Amino acid sequence: MSDRNFFLSPKASKARLREAENARKNRWDIIKAHSHGQVSRRDLIKMGLFTGAGLMIPISGLSPFARSAFADSNIPTGLPPSPLFGVQPFSTPMPRFDVLPRQPVSVLNPAPTAQANTTQQPVDPALGGGTGPIEGRPPGPIWAHQQFSQLPPVIAIQATMEGAKTNTVYNPTVPSLQNSGINPANPIPFQFHPGLPIQNVLKDWTYNGTIPPKLMLVRYGEPVLFRLRNKLPVNQSQNGGFGIHTISTHEHNGHHGAENDGFTGAFFFPNQFYDYHYPIVLAGRNSINTTATDARASGPTDAGGLLKIPGDWRETMSTHWFHDHMFSFTAQNVYKGMAGMFNIYSGLDRGAEDIVDGVNLRLPSGRASVSGKSWGNLDYDVNLMLADKAWDATGQLAMDIFEFDGFLGDQMTVNLIFKPFMEVERRKYRFRILNASVSRFFKIALSDGSPMIQIANDGNLLPRPVTLTQLDEQGIAERYDIVIDFSRYSVGQKVWMVNLAEHQDGKRVDKDLSLAEALSGNSPDPCVGKFLEFRIARNPAQPDISQVPATLIPNPDLSNIPVARERIFEFNRGANQTTNDPVSSFFGPWGIETDNQRGTLAADFGRISAAPRFGTREVWTLKNGGGGWDHPIHIHFEECQTLARDGSAANVPAWERGRKDVWRLRPGGEVKITLQFRDFGGMFMEHCHNTMHEDNAMLLRWEIDDLGAPFLRPLPTPIPKPQGVTFVPPTEILPTAF
Amino acid sequence: MNTQVNIKTGRRRFSANVLTLLVGVVAVLVLGNPSVQAQTTGTTTVDSSVTIATTGTVTEGTTTVTLNGSVIIKCRRVIDNTSTTLAPLVLLDFDFSQLQGTTGSGKTLKTYVTGENHATTLRPFQASDTIVVTVPYFDSATDGQQASSFLATATLNFDTSTGKLTSASLAYGTNVFKSSGVGTFTVN
């Protein structure tokens, strides 16, 4: 057993548990002071509480990695385990996601506008008073919704960001029978299990303030306007000790203009809203299939037919998620609950397994003839959001923002419920698995070692399905879509999803365990082992007619598109900060070196690190600069193809041979990818999705700025304030950016 | 007042409570005995691989499948340069794609394949390691949706001075989790 684990065992001595609790309380006071703006990280470093590289000095009584006074030498204090209040695993059903209502765009008041709505409103004195715009989107033509008149929003989806409260309008869109018996009419208090305490309004902040997590259902060819209203407290100190009330939502990984991408510096304030325009288009819409004649490039109609759209059908996407992207606070805000999922339906991936038209792949979902829904059936198409959490002695959500290597929880949740069960029928199910953790990687198997079929990676259907008995490690933000066939089991049997990836800290997986090791209960990592129980409850009412075709979606052929240039990004610890803008630059141990120049730089969303030419294709190499950590690297905007891992195409496994937007570099590893820059422009990001690394400060800005007016080269940087967004020139442009 | 800016600059005055806390903590720092973690960057990796010929049998129900074929085991050793005490890592990739199974003979001959499955795993580096992985297999005339699984137990030996994988052996066995990994419940 490792001697350096993040959490103490509940069986540790009372003295050690007391010591750990005291250390946590001491640290908590500093965390609160920091989150309230009373002390900065620079101050803490000056005081000697942190190393220059950003690590908390292992001080007894403060750090979980200080030597324990009650254990053998070199045994760390550890963190106290989250209390379970007698709750047993697999004792409560897993709720399906809560589907956000789809409304006609005419319900929006005020009506959405191409440029940000700068109508003035009073600003709360806690935010500086005076007046400010009702919409927090940066104003003017550069941040106007691109192609708004060509792709006007048809559907409005509205949500608020607010503190934890009881859900009285739960809408899973599936019958109770397909939701483990949950009656959606019953109010759902915000608690991780009915036996655990109800969460405080300041501790958990989610879309609409409720659980289950939210799901948007969209389809190709039907542009959506997502209006998010910030209803968080105006007083920054009303945050439950962590998180910040300024927010920015990233639709991961939408193909749309940067004004809708949740740019980290385009955050907005309480009492404002932000209109995100999701056109739901295929990449290549301006250059491939421009006359929309290919039926495979399509969205489903309500009548069961196809709406053909321009673009490359091989760029069809399926499983996205949306989450907060607030600069240097993403980890805290997402951990508080700012995460949902986003299913995109297409002619190929219809969500109606009984429509036979030669285009529909008929993946497990449900029958249109039963539900009356020609697309988006969720009966057998299940979103799973995996996240490790921790709570304090009173059962309230707890976080330690000073674990810059990465923060781990010690309790597994699925759809924000502690180790639930799910009733299933003896047939095929599709699971859209999202790793929504801060720093934890998963490696999933079934407890009986039975095969699963991986059909998609990062929301992109693979060229062909891959049969696996254990999935690859799944990094933060990666989405793995798999199919499990429960017909191999008998009614009355149960089988579990198991995590094989053992962590001892947030840097990386320490060890991948065998199934026997993971099931033994001997791992010091409390999140190893069973975390979701499937109960085979009955035979299906109708025969399973869903399919997993041998061919799904082949990759776009890029062979005739020249490579305009290559870039190298190396992800390192030990960053320098070359800029000092008080809003856009940040200091932390992590950083990125671009094209072997200027060294490793900490994040500044005012710095331009790369500016690919519009309409070109590039090859980027992502290198892990160290051997002791892993980084799941995310590139915004357009899906990429993986050309090589560690220098060889042969090292790219079958499940990564489709399109992707997050790559685990693996310790000491590198990945070569290729991507295009087309259809839209603006400022995008590239960062580590271990969000503790991202926030501290492994993030860079790249931009497409040569589309012509209204874009400028370079783009000015937005600096949001409650009284309005101002623009400043870039703080720095790296020599190889353009 | 823009509190966001305050977070970045830390210009706001400390409260009395925070000051008291920080003074106390700094005192602990002075009296304490902090250790410093290694902060080096740069990566040391060693790549190696072995290909081994394997045979074995696995049984599921009344069917015994004879396995035969080569397995490629790729290994990358990586030095953990964030720590002077933690062991290096090995990233392992087991490629079973050349492994085939058969039952029967003549007209009853059936061939089984493992598809594109690779078992990938990360382990602490040690002179020798035993790793058990599950492997899918299915009738080559089908698409893998009704695949079964077996266990592969790999014994790996490394050269501790070079970090290279020097030899390996594999034993195949029936998937015992097929029964032990499944429970029962009372259907309502």
Structure characteristics:
heterodimer, A: Immunoglobulin-like, seven-stranded mixed β-sheet, 6 helices, 7% helix, B: 188 residues, nine-stranded antiparallel β-sheet, 14% helix, globular, disordered N terminus
Task: Show the helix and strand layout.
The complex is a heterodimer of chains A (738) and B (188).
Chain A: H1 14-35, H2 41-46, E1 98-99, E2 103-104, E3 120-122, E4 131-133, E5 155-163, E6 205-207, E7 214-219, E8 224-230, E9 249-252, E10 273-278, E11 298-300, E12 306-308, E13 319-324, H3 330-336, E14 339-345, H4 368-371, E15 381-389, E16 411-414, E17 417-418, E18 421-425, E19 428-435, E20 444-446, E21 452-457, E22 460-468, E23 479-485, E24 493-499, E25 501-503, E26 509-512, H5 515-519, E27 529-538, E28 563-573, E29 590-594, E30 597-601, E31 607-610, E32 617-624, E33 632-635, E34 640-645, E35 659-660, E36 662-664, E37 670-676, E38 682-688, H6 691-695, E39 699-704, E40 717-719, E41 726-728, E42 732-733
Chain B: H1 3-9, H2 16-31, E1 45-60, E2 63-78, E3 89-95, E4 100-103, E5 110-113, E6 118-124, E7 128-139, E8 148-158, E9 165-174, H3 177-180, E10 182-184
Antiparallel strand pairs in B: 1-2, 2-3, 2-4, 3-6, 4-5, 5-7, 7-8, 8-9
Contiguous helical run count of chain B: 3
Kindly provide the radius of gyration of chain B, computed on alpha-carbon positions and rounded to a whole number of angstroms. Answer: 27 Å
* CATH-assigned homologous superfamily of the domain at 563-733 in chain A: Cupredoxins -  blue copper proteins
Please tell me the overall pLDDT of chain A.
93
CATH fold descriptor of the domain at 563-733 in chain A: Immunoglobulin-like
Record field, number of beta strands of chain B: 10
Number of discrete domains of chain B: 1
Unreliable runs of chain B: 1-40
Task: Specify Rg of chain A, calculated over alpha carbons.
Answer: 24 Å
Taken from the alpha-carbon principal axes, the silhouette of chain B is: globular
Give the distance, in angstroms, between the N- and C-terminal Cα atoms of chain B.
59 Å
Which strand-content bin applies to the residues of chain A? 25-35%
The 3D shape of chain A can be described as globular
Average pLDDT of chain B, to the nearest integer? 81
